[in-house]
Amino acid sequence: MNQTLDSQEHKKAREAIMMHVRKVVPYALMVAVASGLYLITQIFGKIEEDGMSSFQILLSIKAFLASWLGLRGINQKLFKIDPWVFKSHLFPFSFVVIIILLSQFMYINF
Question: 18-41 b/e with 16+ CB inside 10 Å = b?
């Protein structure tokens, strides 16, 4: 868009797209977190006497990070509560990157 539109048209087009993104993304995040929490109950498995396996540990970390993101999204979208701390997008984005990396480690090791 930046190559074919002048700066004013680009700004209007970008805002028109972002308006729809802001409506859809929080609900998509909530669906992803809810389905992930359900799936964890299906695949977590039994904790043995010698403790959790590395798979269970990584899955627990992912669940914590995703739950934090989901709670933050629900508070912002449904209850109109701003985040108490970490108001920038960098912190939640870093959680998403960490979740993706944990998924890759889980895939490689198991």
Answer: eeeeeeeebeebbeebeebeeebe
